[in-house]
Amino acid sequence: MTSPPIAHPPETLEGWYALHQIFRFAKQKPDAARLARLVKSSAITLSSAPAARKSKSSAVPAGWSCFVRLIGSTSDLMVIHFRESLDAIGVAQDALSKTELGKTLQPVYAFLSVTEAGLYHISAELARSSEARGGKVGDAEYAKTLAARSTAERESQQVKRRLYPELPEKMPYVCFYPMSKRRDAGQNWYTLTLDERSLLMQAHGLTGRRYSGKVQQVITGAIGLDAWEWGVTLFAQDPLEFKKLVTDMRFDEVSAKYAEFGDFYVGRIIPR
């Protein structure tokens, strides 16, 4: 009897930690002018915090925060932090809570994650190579080759943009939502072979590339950090692009069969 193929996890590269905080105003919502002043003051406080001013690597910035006025939501404000360590996220979280703005806010939801680049194609290739030479995933040769390939990937500009995303200019609209892959009987993402998952993710990625220049996407991994498995943060000049992109992606097999989505939060960045 032939054994079923082993479902190996893909290797991943990680960059900045991310925290999405959703708030509503505890009392009266400030008018636009006062909100702008509160945000500007809070942004100065966050940028001057030690964790935001100093990075362990001179080649990598320490991160950034932005403030998003939510529209069409029962909540009022989303604050997004990117930092190089979990401790630095904690510093930003504490710093915001002590500002004049922070003292007016009531927490509604928070999502902790880390920027992620999934190496599906490389992982599948190395797994096949290991099997062909009679080895196994994770052995010494696999680890050596993976380390070299991962270093090369991490140095590519495309991957750097995914792991250390810049706050885009001229894309003031933001959409954030958490998501997970299904684990239902007959539709379990985690029982597919690595080759199957790799092919599905390649097709999924091609859909996203059609929106290059219109939407900037940041994928963050949250397995082990949150109940949801990934976070998707989208930036655009035209908010209708969110609807078009998500619609297109839901018709990909990977989403149509295996994706579960949480609540969507949409709004506009408040200038600092």
The CATH topology of one domain corresponds to: Alpha-Beta Plaits
* Tertiary shape: globular
Instruction: Specify the number of helices.
Output: 9
Could you name the CATH homologous superfamily of one domain?
Apc35880, domain 1
Task: Assess the beta-strand content as a share of residues.
Answer: 25-35%
Helix content: 25-40%
Describe the structure.
This protein is of the alpha+beta class. The chain has a domain at 15-115: 2-Layer Sandwich (Alpha-Beta Plaits), CATH 3.30.70. Helices cover 38% and strands 29% of the residues. The protein contains 9 helices and 11 strands. The protein has an 8-stranded antiparallel β-barrel with strand order 1-3-2-11-5-9-8-4, surrounded by 5 helices. Helix 4 runs antiparallel to helix 7 (194-209). It is globular. It starts with 10 loop residues before the first strand and ends with a strand. The model has no long low-confidence stretch (mean pLDDT 89).
Secondary structure blueprint with pairings:
Layout: E1 11-25, H1 32-48, H2 50-53, E2 63-70, E3 77-83, H3 86-97, E4 105-119, H4 120-132, H5 140-155, H6 157-163, E5 173-181, E6 183-184, E7 187-188, H7 194-209, E8 215-221, E9 230-236, H8 240-250, H9 253-258, E10 259-261, E11 265-269
Antiparallel strand pairs: 1-3, 1-4, 2-3, 2-11, 4-8, 5-9, 5-10, 5-11, 6-7, 8-9
Helix pairs in contact: 4-5, 4-7
